Amino acid sequence: MSDAGPISTVDDLPATEARTVRNRKANDTRRGRQHLTRDEGHRLMRGAMRHQRHGRRDALMIRLAFEHGLRVSELVALRWSAIDLVTHELRITRIKGSLDGTHPLQGSTVRALKRYQRQDGRSSGLVFVNERGAPVSADGFAACSTDSANRSWV
User: Fold this and answer.
1) Sheet arrangement for strand 89-92
2) Is 124 helix (H, G, I), strand (E, B) or coil?
3) Nearest to 39 by CA among 47, 29, 31
4) Rounded to two decimals, what is the model's pTM?
5) Domain made up of 35-149: CATH architecture
6) Domain ranges of the chain
7) Count of other CB atoms within 10 angstroms of residue 22
8) Which of 18, 57, 83, 129 has the fewest other C-beta atoms within 10 Å?
9) Per-residue pLDDT tens for 124-148?
10) Contact 55/48 with Cβ under 8 angstroms?
């Protein structure tokens, strides 16, 4: 047993000051929807393609996230072993308790993946890496999607 003294309860502690907590508006009252329309998704991908260095990679990341509802952490952790370019299937390992599953890949997405694979020269490991071969970070994806949005809507 330690000699730390008696344990205080919340009732024993003096209140320092009263706080006013503002009620935050729900997201749907601040903006009408929580998703991009198909046209907005395509505009975002076109904006990414305008980037000279990583346009193909960035557009492909946006495309996969948009078409398959991937969380950023699921996208940046995507491995080539989860993509079957022969049967046109994408095996998704979900996080946060969602169910894993297999999604069909559109022909145009398969062609984009093959082009990217030829350009990148990698057929194993992580799909999306930076120029140093390290995984693209969540912040890196946020920066590329923000940059793409700025290119698309300006």
Assistant:
1) 83-84, 89-92, 101-104
2) coil
3) 47
4) 0.68
5) Orthogonal Bundle (1.10)
6) 35-149
7) 5
8) 18
9) 789 998 888 888 888 887 777 777 7
10) yes
